[in-house]
Amino acid sequence: MDFLSPSTWEEALAVKSAHPDAVPIMGGTDVMVELNFDKHRPPALIDLTRVPELTRWAPEGDGVLMGAGLSYTRIIGELAGHAPALAQASRSVASPQIRNRGSVGGNLGGASPSGEAHPPLLATDAVIELASVRGTRRVPAREFYLGLRHTARAEDELIAAVLLPRPAGPQYFAKIGTRNAMVIAVASFAIALDAATRTVGTGVGSCAPTPIRAVEAEEFIAGELDWDGGSPLAPGAVTRFGELVASVARPIDDVRGSADYRKHALSVMARRTLAWAVTDHRKGIEQCA
Amino acid sequence: MRVSFEVNGEQVTADDVWAGESLLYVLRERLGLPGSKNACEQGECGSCTVYLDCVTACSCMVAAGQAEGRSVRTVEGLAEGGAAGADPALAHVQEAFVAAGAVQCGFCTPGLLVQTDDLIEQTVGRGGGVPEDAEIREHLAGNLCRCTGYEKIIDAVRTAAERTLAERSEVAR
């Protein structure tokens, strides 16, 4: 096994192109588990921790272009205002030691349906930047997850960055597990209200082979919300939203929870996060009035 | 491959390192620093916590090659004088764990000491006060004690923070 250590982004792309079956490693919080338990022995590792671009972020248009290797700790500290749901999800990742090393790029590379970053990226319509020696392209998160641990990334591509659109309304993330820390989500959910386009975004984790959206629930609740007046949602609408979110789930029974429990938990989280978001939205309207 | 980095202020080199080897393995088996413990090897237990460039990490999840040219501080480096010192004075964190009886089997202690040191650095060390219990629990959430002696551990963290705060106030005066 080789250890390849590019120090520039161009070099990293060239190395990945020359060794498409080499595994990129950033924080190592997934990759090293595989190696420590000898589950997987790739021909080479590509250490990306020396590529400066991956741990930077900068404004782009209205939003922020975040390097794929920015640690969860730095997302929490630096991007909470730019990406509230992603920052909330980041706070729920494992432990401080893991948050110091783990990054959204790793979540996207592994593409486990339980990755904390996925629901917020789906809900907020974030865009993933992929790069190879052939060039750079951008894929919406909503088109990125193709199958179980299978994504739109080609073999010779590296995950460069994530474009986080500027929030245009309240965003929330929720996750169910046996304790606060060190938990792989039994089910997770993110919601983003966009008052500018009068749309609602959702993201569901740990409830299907890939992270998914609940499109019908999004359209239903966007039509029910009083975007300008700020009057409360009808209780029936909140319940229906929960049901519609749960209806997209195709969960499995496993050691972490049964499929029925996951669906139930999902509907509860959908209702709760919707209530929090709508409360924030109504407060915002009151303050403006 | 050869990997060179700084450990507890000293420049070290390890030879014949396998590309998939962890920093933890290099520290324990090649550099004679067994303070960082090897338990879960998957980032769940925190027993192998070290500073890597001033940020705490589970050394079992750092590939050895990623430490090349970096600075590592292990539990052996917490006491003044560090690993090479003949009779190093214990750090406040270490003294507090002894005083509070926060050690049972002791296997989780090195990781807890490093992560506690980091908490105190981020609170008292940055001009803040002694952390509340909730903050202590959150910061140590990735460090498991299988003897379940958490109450004494939290007492020890509070004591260590209080002593550090008192000492810094004294210096400031």
Q: CATH superfamily assignment of the largest domain in chain B?
A: [2Fe-2S]-binding domain
CATH homology group of the largest domain in chain A: CO dehydrogenase flavoprotein, C-terminal domain
Task: State the end-to-end CA separation of chain B.
Answer: 51 Å
Beta content of chain B? 5-15%
Average residue pLDDT of chain A = 96
Distinct helical segment count of chain A: 10
Largest sheet of chain B: 5 strands, mixed
Main sheet characteristics of chain A: 5 strands, antiparallel
Please report the distance between the alpha carbons of the first and last residues of chain A: 64 Å
What is the tally of beta strands of chain A?
13
Provide the gyration radius of chain A in Å.
19 Å
Strand content of chain A: 15-25%
CATH domain fold name of the largest domain in chain A: Enolase-like, domain 1
Indicate the CATH class of the largest domain in chain B.
Mainly Alpha
Domain 2Fe-2S ferredoxin-type (chain B): 1-78
Keywords (chain B): 2Fe-2S, Iron, Iron-sulfur, Metal-binding, Oxidoreductase
GO molecular function (chain B): 2 iron, 2 sulfur cluster binding; metal ion binding; oxidoreductase activity
Organism (chain B): Murinocardiopsis flavida
Question: How would you characterize this protein structure?
Answer:
The complex is a heterodimer of chains A (289) and B (173). With 289 residues, chain A is an alpha+beta fold. Chain A has 2 domains: 51-164, Uridine Diphospho-n-acetylenolpyruvylglucosamine Reductase, domain 3 (2-Layer Sandwich), CATH 3.30.465; 171-288, CO dehydrogenase flavoprotein, C-terminal domain (Enolase-like, domain 1, 2-Layer Sandwich), CATH 3.30.390. Chain A contains 10 helices and 13 strands. Chain B starts with a strand and ends with a helix. The radius of gyration of chain B is 16 Å and the shape is globular. A 5-stranded mixed β-sheet of chain B has the order 2-1-5-3-4, sandwiched between helices. At the A-B interface, α2, β3 and α5 of A face β4 of B.
